[in-house]
Write a structure and sequence with these properties.
mainly alpha, globular
Length: 315
């Protein structure tokens, strides 16, 4: 069902019935205070009426108003309910609203990227993700179109090029790309829901997610490599106050935290506090490595020499 289709009462009833398990689970997960979904009260197989659909729509709107986009993201990336059909139904539900809020826009943006990620091949190269291909994958929810970026989105490609030049997560977070991309969405709120604009933003967000994950894993690997090197040098604690840890944070504990972060950051690519902690932790580990080298340059050079290790080093 495309964004432009006008569903019949029967189609509305089928769509909302299919979404009811998802919304009921959402309301339960995030303790949304709403009565039972009125669709439950309909006799199975009965034809929906305008009144019953209005009541059902009101219930869904009530849940929508209390669920934030980060909650929807968290839920859909952890629940077995989030298959391709459910994502299509969720997109149709948001796209067919007569009046769309900023929250509807953000949820639609996330859902489009999630749907594209689910349907696109995992081994796809960055160069293959052009507007035409994204439009092709999104055709079941947006309908057929020949995408061409509106003039007001001409800077999206420049932003992606800037993001691609980032060599570590701190570069990306400090580049302003995330903020500028969001500003484009909010400056032309109505224009976002033009099909070509949604395709453009879906591609932008998908590519940005790819860049984020690459940089995140690079940072986590660099931190873990640095912590192993510190342990090899006999350093058991480091000053991590800049990352909101202690002045003498055990290196072993930091390694365990990094392992848990690999799971925690799996679905997140915003400039939130946990990511700042990751960026600051890498800086703290880099500082500890450099400070150790400055305090004992001979030992540092000996440790770095191929085939050699310092006295007492644990392999």
């Amino acid at each position: 069902m495309t964004a432009s289709a006008q569903p019949s009462l029967e189609e509305q009833g089928i769509a909302l019935s299919a979404l009811r398990p998802v919304y009921t689970a959402l309301a339960r997960e995030f303790v949304v205070e709403v009565p039972a979904c009125p669709i439950d009260d309909h006799a199975e197989g009965s034809s929906p009426t305008s009144e019953s659909m209005e009541q059902a729509e009101a219930w869904f709107q009530q849940v929508d108003a209390q669920i934030q986009v980060h909650q929807l993201r968290q839920f859909l990336q952890t629940t077995p309910l989030a298959n391709e059909a459910v994502l299509r139904q969720l997109l149709a539900h948001h796209l067919q609203k007569a009046s769309k809020s900023g929250s509807d826009r953000d949820k639609t943006d996330f859902l489009l990227v999630q749907y594209f990620s689910l349907c696109a091949p995992s081994g796809m190269e960055d160069a293959d993700v052009d507007l035409e291909y994204v439009a092709q994958v999104l055709e079941p929810v947006l309908g057929p179109l020949q995408p061409k970026l509106p003039a007001w989105l001409s800077s999206l490609e420049t932003l992606l090029q800037s993001a691609a030049r980032s060599r570590r997560l701190s570069d990306l977070l400090h580049s302003g790309v995330l903020e500028q991309g969001r500003k484009l969405k909010t400056q032309n709120a109505a224009g976002y829901f033009e099909p070509s604009a949604m395709v453009g933003f879906a591609r932008f967000s998908f590519m940005l997610r790819r860049i984020f994950f690459r940089l995140m894993h690079d940072d986590l690997n660099a931190i873990q490599d640095g912590l192993r090197e510190l342990e090899r040098r006999g350093i058991s604690t480091i000053d991590c106050r800049r990352a909101q840890f202690s002045a003498e944070e055990p290196v072993g504990r930091l390694r365990m935290i990094c392992q848990s972060w690999k799971v925690m950051f799996h679905a997140e690519y915003s400039s939130g506090q946990p990511l700042r902690m990751l960026v600051d932790l890498r800086a703290a580990v880099d500082d500890a490595l450099q400070n150790g080298a400055r305090k004992n340059p001979l030992a540092a050079r000996a440790a770095a020499a191929p085939g050699r290790s310092g006295a007492g080093t644990k392999e």
